[in-house]
Design brief:
This protein has three helices and seven strands, in the order ββββαβββαα. By secondary structure, the chain is of the alpha+beta class. The strands form two sheets. The protein has a five-stranded antiparallel β-sheet with strand order 3-4-7-6-5. Strands 1-2 form a two-stranded antiparallel ribbon. The longest helix has 13 residues.
Length: 115
């Protein structure tokens, strides 16, 4: 699968490439390839809090006007969403459930509201 690399400016002003698999809608990208997700974890120092193995864990952070939401379902199943402020909520909710489940749409909306 071909990669897209989105430049995020970190707190030091350095541009770092965030790997994504594809654009879902305008201002929303998804990464589900575990190797890309792990590389993003390393480059952006993403760590999940400890918890029960069966619970879904999330981590989000904001760089300028872009937000990264990482979701860890279990040891080998992770997904990341990169989205921008101004993401259209109606467009997000119109995405079919087989592309982004409603539960994940709620997590995206909450991360956007908290940013």
């Amino acid at each position: 699968m071909q990669s897209l690399k989105i430049g995020l400016t970190n707190k030091e002003g350095k541009i770092i490439g965030f790997l994504t698999d594809r654009e879902v809608i305008e201002k929303l990208y998804i990464t589900f390839d575990i190797n890309k997700v792990r590389e993003n974890y390393f480059k952006f120092h993403i760590k999940f809090p400890r918890g029960k193995n069966k619970e879904i864990k999330t981590h989000s952070f904001k760089e300028n006007n872009q937000i990264v939401l990482s979701i860890k379902l279990d040891r080998e199943n992770h997904v990341q969403y990169l989205f921008e402020e101004g993401l259209d909520m109606d467009d997000l909710l119109d995405i079919p459930e087989n592309v982004i489940p409603y539960k994940f749409k709620k997590l995206i909306a909450n991360a956007l509201l908290l940013s």
